[in-house]
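Q&A FORM
Asked by: J.P.
Topic: structure of NAD(P)-dependent dehydrogenase (Short-subunit alcohol dehydrogenase family)

PROVIDED:
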Amino acid sequence: MSETNNNIPRMVEGKVVVVTGAGGGIGRDIALAMAREGAKVVVNDIGASVSGEGNDAGPAQAVVNEIKDLGGEAVANTDSVSDATSAGRIVQTALDAFGRIDVIVNNAGILRDRFFHKMSLDEWDAVIKVHLYGAFHVSRAAAPHFKEQTSGNYIHMTSTSGLIGNFGQANYAAAKMGVAALSKSIALDMQKFNVRSNCISPFAWSRMIGSIPTDTPEEQARVERIKQMTPAKIAPLAVALASDASVQTNGQIFGVRNNEIFLFSQPRPIRSVHRGEGWTPQSVASHALPAMQASYFDLDRSGDVFSWDPV
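REPLIED BY: S.T.
REPLY: Here is the structure written out as tokens.
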């Protein structure tokens, strides 16, 4: 079937898309949406727990089966993104199954939350390897093919934990801020080959619902609104970014929060001070810092900035 039900041509018809971490959650919904819009999909997932333990081929194959039930084409892959060699096999799976690669969605991730002063080296290392190294490894494996065919598209998942801040997530925040910088660098380096790279910061808090108080009617109503922020809400933006309709969109950072789509700012100078004779430590302390203090940023967390409930 080459068209959607309303006879509009499908947005990613014939494109070959790799979605990492696609055995559930956001990745699964992106994989399904890509397939509905005509893509051939490599569903990558090692089948690990949220913290990265374990290995199970079932989740990836289950999503492949869902796609095939929709009449789409998909193959499963269970290689880890955290190692360069295995990440290369993810891309090779697309080449072997479908003969090309057009889109990489770097979605795979784990969480090992801990306050910074208690965080172990293993907790730091594991999260950085999956999120930041994983995005690099899979992107790098696809890069020669994108360069050769003078087309390609990267979509990376970042987070407001990195872009804004959050408690107990130094490993995750550092990785996700790094992913945003990686995406921008890829966009700069590969634009001459007609390759694009963008980020999505997704809000999909289904795992948090159980911890939110529901003692009052107001709290119950709030939880019901938050429940609307399902992983499926992220997929439309991902598909649009993967399509040729977004050809002018490169090096950007978006957010999706239920039915809202945001464009995030990127760091730029907002204030400066100058002394013709140069600075000393003393004049920095007495002049530069006080002059700029009114423009300092608060120690915000993501929840402080996104303080309204989704609608």
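FOLLOW-UP: The first helix runs from residue 25 to 36.
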